[in-house]
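[User] Once you have settled down, look closely at the record that follows, and write a paragraph about the fold.
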Amino acid sequence: MYAGVLGADRVPLLDKFRTRPAWQHRDAETRLAAVRQLGPDQEELLASIARSDEDARVRRAAARTSAGQSRSKSRGRARITVAKNGTKAGRPERW
């Protein structure tokens, strides 16, 4: 974002203090723990994580959490199936 203005290795001071939610962290273990702590009012977020996170474990946890909270069990089962297959947007996960 600032690479052209400040150089690739320099970040404005205020950006260092901005925090992201734990489910957006770089580390998959941190994201996994954050997904497990999300509540029932976060179903849309859980569905989004289940579809798009780069780590299969995080996607699977989001799908399971969402399925456990969902009123429609069939919709939850479909999410779990997608997460278990290791697919992201219809593509197989790279090892």
User: Anything to note?
Assistant: The chain has a mean pLDDT of 75. Residues 56 and 87 are 8 Å apart (CA to CA). The two ends are 29 Å apart (CA to CA).
